[in-house]
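Pasting as-is:
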Amino acid sequence: MSSKGKSGKTGLIFFPAFDWAISPTHPEREERLLYTRDQIFEEGLMDLPQIDEYKPRLAEMLDIARVHFCVPDVESQITEAHLIAAGSTLTLADALERGEIRNGFALVRPPGHHSMRVVHGNRGFCNINNMAVLVEYLRTKYGHKRIAVIDTDVHHGDGTQEIFWHDPDVLCISFHQDGHTLYPGTGFVNEMGGPQALARTLNIPLPPGTTDEGIHYVLDRLILPVLEEFKPDLILNSAGQDNHYTDPLANMRFSANGYARLNEKLAPDICVLEGGYAVETALPYVNTGIIQAMAGLDYSHLKEPDFVPGRFVQSEQMNREIEATVAQVQRLWDDKDELVKDALQGLGDFYRRKKRIFYDTDMINESQEETVRLCPNCSGYMTISSQAQRGYGILNSAFCVSIPRKACSSCREDAKEEYEEHIDDRRFGYVCMQDKDRDTFKFHNNMTHTQKSY
C-alpha cells in the first residue's frame, strides 16, 4: 500500500457542473454537490489547516484517448464539464505526487464508473470514466505500476472493471447491491477478469438491506487483507454514496458514520465521487464524514437528523449470505495464480469474447467482439470490433487496436498491421489505435479518409 506518512493535508476539489445535466429533474443534477458544499462551509471545514481546496482544470484530449476509444472521436463524446471532472482528479494526482497533500477527494460530476473502454454515448449517467483516466495518468506520468481501485458505489462499477479486465497490475474490487436487483445487472462473483488477470477483478454482490455491519464485515474480512497482500502503490476509491439508507435509487442501509469509518480503514490516497442521489438527506452528511476521516478529524458525532441507532438490523440469513460470498471471493483470490495457469493452458494464441452493451441513457445497443493476443513475452495487444445501433439503424461502427505498455516487438508490429489493414475497410466507419507505450493515439475516419491524432 501507499507508504505516504500521516502528516500533510487533505486536498478537495468541488465541481458541481452547473451547465451539464441529463434533464432538469434528473437525479444526477448539480444539487448533488451544492448541498454538500453548503454543509461543509457551515461546519467550517474549509477554514481548517488540515484541508486545502484546489481549483479544477481541464483534462486534455490525450488523457481521455489514453483510456477510451470514443466513437467517432473524443470531441463528439465529451463536454467541457467532462473534461473538468476528469481534470480535477489529475489536479489532485499532481498535488499528491508533489507532496502537497497526503490524500484528496474530487467531489465532481458528471460521474464515470459505468463508462467502458469503447464509448458511443452515455450509459448509467456516464460518458467518461474519471477513475480510469486518473489511473492511466498516474501510470503514464508518474510510473506507478500496481494500483488498487475500490468501488464503493451501490451500483456495480462495470465500466472500470471492463477497462482493466485484462490488466493484472490494476486490482479492481467492487462491493454493491446484488445485480439481480439493481442496475447494471452485473458484478457477480464469477466475473473475475481476463485469462491473464484472473481474480484481479473481485466482485462482492450484497443483498438489498445490507447495513453498516455487513459492509464493514466485507471490508475487514476481505478487502483489507487482499490489499495488504497485493501491496499497491496507490489505493483509489470510487466513492459512490448511494448505499445510504435514504438513497432513492437503491435499497441498502449504510449510514454516514459507516461511510466515514470505511474511509478511515481503507485510507485511500484519492477518492473520486461517483453516485449518490439523496441530495439533502445523505450527501451532505456522507461527504462531510468522508472529508473528516480523510483529514484525521473526529467524526464520532456525525449523524443524519433522522438516524436512529439500531434501526437497521441484518437478518441471520443475510449474515450467512454475506459470509458465504466473502468466503467464495477469498478462495478465488487465494487461487489466483493457479486460475491463470489453468486458463492459459486451455487457450491458444488468442482469447476472444463477444459482448452486448446497452446504453440506458442514450438507448444505444452495442455489439462487440474483443480479441487479445496471449503473448508469452508481454501482455499482448487487443483488438475490438464494435457496432452501435439506435433503433433499427446503424449508429457507428469501429475497429479498435490497443498496444499495451512494454509491448514486445512482435505484438507491436502485428498491432500496427491490424490497424493499417482496416483503414478504408468498408465494414467500419472508424479505425482507432492506442499506443500506450508511446502515449500516442490515432482515430481514422474511413468515410472522409481523414486522420486525427492525440
